[in-house]
Amino acid sequence: MTGRGGGGGGRRILLPPINFLFRLLQQRTVVQIWLYEQLSIRIVGIIRGFDEFMNLVIDDAVEVKQITKNNDKEERRPLGVCLHNKDI
Hints:
The protein contains one helix and four strands, in the order αββββ. The protein has one helix spanning 17-27, and strands at 30-34, 41-50, 56-65, 75-84. The chain has a four-stranded antiparallel sheet. A hairpin with a 5-residue loop joins strand 2 and strand 3. It comes from Podospora fimiseda.
């Protein structure tokens, strides 16, 4: 998770997942989402919004296919705005 600034002690404060997502949304941090059943595919983008069920709206989303035995180079495909449903 993330720690708070201020130095000293190296003490880390653990945030609940919903608070962590909110911080990423506020800071417009680029995130990488790993798909549960397709381990070679990642979605990279900026969180535009989410709800209490952890459904995500990703802005400037790009699908990244990782290097595997069958695929010798990384492939990127722009998606634009993407809705990631936790049930899919």
